[in-house]
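Example pasted here:
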Amino acid sequence: MISRRSILKRLSTMPLLGGLVGSAVPLQSALASTVVAPRNLAKELGIRTFINAAGTYTAMTGSLMPDEVMETIQAASKEFMMLDEVQTKVGAKIAAITHAESAVVTAGCFSAMTLGLAGVLTGMDQKKVEALPLLEGTGMKSEVIIQKGHNVGYSHALTNTGCKIVFVETVEDVEKAINEKTALMWFLNIQSDKGKIMHQEWLNLAKKHNIPTMIDIAADVPPVENLWKFNDMGFDLVCVSGGKAMRGPQSAGLLMGKKHLIDAARLSMPPRGSTIGRGMKVNKEEVLGMYVALDRFVKLDQKKEWQMWEDRVAHISDTVKKVNGVKTETFRPELGNHTPTLRITWEPAKVNLTAKSLQENLRNGDPSIEIVGEQNGVSLTTWMLKPGQEKIVASRLKEELSKAAV
């Protein structure tokens, strides 16, 4: 756990926290106050907690924040600050880490997409900012070009601005689709293998016609290099979730990119009202917590982390394979949720159990465990496990598979 001295040292290096560190006595008094055992609200309210062997799903509340992040959040909650100053100073730190001209903490990746496009549409024109999502008669552009293979529900973040989606497949389609209404060319990294146009060619087309580009890499970290890869590549805006691999607040994300676009996007963000982004509020605690989470993440020994995940997967695999008829396969998704993943299948003639039943048995057990159901088996990851939980997961899986053995 991070020491009081370490957290004060970290906070004191950030100019925006002058008010926080300047009043050292109340902060230290708060940190030094007697720790009272918190209420167990999950137990009190009857909320199920579980071992997360599934991954960083929003429905499962993403990831768990490290002590370092939580202590930063708690310390920041003791003082008032100006929200814009917090965003500006933190944004400068984040931009330096991610090789971007500028950055801002948003209310998740979805919010980053909406706000980023808003900035593209309005520039620094306050009247246009207040007009969104009504585009007609404002002089704003109104179309976003997307490859058909990238068409998933998250593109709704773009239509929130009032824009229309124009779908394309080939380079020729892009050339035909671009017109005076084209505001943005959007790329979904996790679906890049589903489109016919890859990253660099997409960028080349956009630059040829002077069209801004945005890439969504919501769950595409690790590898850690993705945090700056697409800024270096030349995308004008890059959007990523903060509450997954980086283990920041689940409600936080990052919008990174060209300074003039980030400045414009911030006009649609709180604390300003009369904007489409007013409800996308990020408090000072989340902004600071997100910065510390990012800073911590990029400094981790990534090879050591990966080896730990692999060792956990291997333990589970070795355990369940002892059941007759059970087979395992270890793989790593290349585009998103890029971590060691274990797929478990079994011969129905030897193990009389459906994937859904196995899921439910683990979910309803004590402790409750979440895994992912597949058509012919189940899969799981280990990067969201607490130390030692891989042994519990392995034991319970073996127990349920063994009970169903014919």
